[in-house]
Amino acid sequence: MSILNQKTIQSKITFNGIGLHTGKNVQLNLLPASPNTGIIFKRIDLKTNNIVIPIYDNVTETTLCTTLSNEYGVKVSTVEHLMGALYGLGIDNLLVEINSQELPILDGSAKIFVEKILSAGLKSSSTPIKLIKINKKVSYKDGDKYISLDKSKVASEIDFEINYKNKIIGIQRNKVNVFNDDLKNIFESRTFCLFEDVEKLKKAGLAQGGSLDNAVVVDEDQVLNKDGLRNSKEFVNHKILDCMGDLYLSGYRIVGSLVTSQGGHSLTNQILRKLFSDKSNFSVIEIKEKTLPYQILDKTYLKSIA
To answer: Which residues sit opposite 42 in a β-bridge?
Structure first.
C-alpha cells in the first residue's frame, strides 16, 4: 500500500454504543468512499438536510466535545475521537452514517475505532494525497492558554502541555510526529475528568452516558478505575488525540508543527480559523512520489498505517 495515495476502508464497519453526553444508544456505520470525497457525516435518522461536513467553520460548540452543525442546524457531536483515528491512520475518504446526534463514546478513546478499521483493512487508490502545508507561523492566546502552528519540512507534529492543580494529573507534556511515531499510546488514551465535577456535569445535562467504562475518573490523589492508567501520560495523550481529531477539521492532514499549552477543542478551532483567514498562511499541496521527501517513508509510519 502506498502512503502517497488517498485511502479509504475495504468494507463497511459498524459500531454500537452510547453517547457520552446524551446517554443515548447510537449506531455508527463507516463506509468506503471514492477519492476526493473527503470525510462526510450523514444523519440517517433524518430524511432531509442530513449531511454534515466536518470542517472547522462548521464547529458550533466546543464545550467538552466538538459539535458540528450544517446550515439547517443539524448537528453531529463528539466527533474528535473518530476524526483523530482517521487522521492518525491516514484515511482520506469515508462516509460516516449515524442514527443520532452524538457519536458513541465506546471506551473513551480511539482504540476500538482503530482496531476495527485495521481489521477491516484499508484500500488505497491511485489518486495522490493532498496535504495542507503551513507557510508561516500563526498563533492564538486566551489568557494562560496558548496555541501556534508553524512550518515543518515533512512532519505533522503536536507538542501538547496540560496543567492541572490535581496532583495525579498535574503538569504533563508530550510531543508526537503523527507521520512517523507509533501512535498506540495516543489512540488508547481515554477521556478523563475529576470526580468532583461529575455531579456538576450531570446536572448541566452533560456526561449522561459517562462511567468508569468510558472515562478515567480522578478523585484527589487516586484514579478510581480499578485497572488504573493505560500509559504514564494518558491524560496529555488523550488531549493529543482530541487535537488530532480537531486538526482534521482543516479538511486534510497538516504538514506543520503545532505547539499548545492548556489547549483544547476551542483553541484548536480558533487556530484553524486564524490559519485560513489569510491564504498566505498555507498551501494545499498534492503529493506525488517524486515530490515527497524520502524521510516520510519511515518504517514506523508504514507500520502504523498497515
So the answer is: 51, 97
